[in-house]
Amino acid sequence: MNDVINKFNFAKTFSAVILTLAIGACSTPGKSPPAPEIVSNMPTAWSEQSPADSNAAINADWWRSFNSPELSTLIDAALDANPDLAIATERVRQAEAQVRIAGASLFPELSVGVATARSKTRPDGGAWSSSDGSSASFSASYELDLWGRNAAGVRSAESSLRATRFDLETARLTLVAGVADGYFQVLSLRGRLATARENLAIADRVFAVVDARVRNGAASALDLARQQTAVLTQRATIPPLELQERQTLFALALLLGKPPEGFDVGLIAATNSPTDFSALLVPAITPGLPADLLTRRPDLASAEAQIAAAHANVGAARAALLPGIQLTGSAGLASKVLLNFLDAPTAALSLGASLMQTIFDGGRLRSQVDVSSSMEREMVENYRKAILAGLADVESTLAANQRTAEQDALQNQILEQARRALRLAEIRYREGVDDLLVVLDAQRTLFQAEDQLAQIRLARLQAAVGLYKALGGGWVQQESVGRKSEASSDVGGGDGP
Asked: For the domain with range 108-144+323-356, which CATH number is right: 3.40.50.300, 2.20.200.10, 3.10.290.10, 3.90.700.10?
């Protein structure tokens, strides 16, 4: 009877200790840093207004709006073979495995073992004696997750998994934008090369006129030398453009995961003729509202998920300050016969519970809480920085789209007048009204105007690609509704272990 009373008193005392610790754990302050102010105070409109329809949406395959089937083919090939995208995919798989590893801590650990042995002994000066033995055991252990440390580890792993998935989407968007940008650069450089060669032909034509006038005594050798200099100067512009075109083409091959040898773009398969750079369309893009950016950019979603992971790590660090309770159990059979448990085996069964509490560690666990809390605040600042950078990206690309469109219109007018001026200068030079300097100046103006127009057209296309990328490229956070409330509580709420 006394034994029963003692057991009851021990159980009551043990339960009281556990309850006191649980209450203390729940009262442990666990407030995370507040959400960045920019999240609740997003601008209501962009400073740079877009002329596009405000109700239009960005398609996930936005690159098709440039009216280039070859570009679509290149992007499909890049999505299949790009090494960086494959690396990002493997990181997602690693994060998925980490979630499974973290989740395993919520379940008991079971193990089974079987052993058999024969041993021989010989006392000093005595005879050898042998003994046989076999044993089988089954054991189980389980850590009670009273303070939520293991559950916090699972939440951290799940949030990190979401972050890596968003990082994969960011890598995909960056790749698509890079392929489009590289493709446009190659076509632009080839267009500039064609213009440079045409301008060289014009310079040669004027040189023939000057040479004829010199031979007829109507012009001096100085005019011939000046025009020869103009021809050589124009010819010297071609090799740098050819080098830049080659280097850009090789970089594009790398994005597609292909060796540069034999790689080429810019040819229409049906006719084997060069792609007309001027035929590419510059689409009108709708920026939407600034607040929409939070759910349209995968890099912002990744930064938000990293805050949730850091917050869970804080909870795990706080829970590590509290005692750990381990339940264990084992059962086994032992026999004095090799590989036989039927000959009068000995059975054993044990159950146990242990409670461990660190009373002194030099402040290691407390410092780990400080580290985790600081990392959480760092992630919040990273999120704020990413939002500000995203807003700046959209504003700058909106401005580039509008300004380059205006430049394009003005440069076309400049080019038209430059061509007219050169025609008139050649006629007046043949008739002896003006000297060669007028023709040379008209040539330089025309050559510069044509090259500048090609660069402005490239800038317009690049600005459009940049705006698509800055707006998330048509990506939409699939779990934005359910996760938004969860992320808000993680960022701005407070919950202890």
From this structure: 2.20.200.10
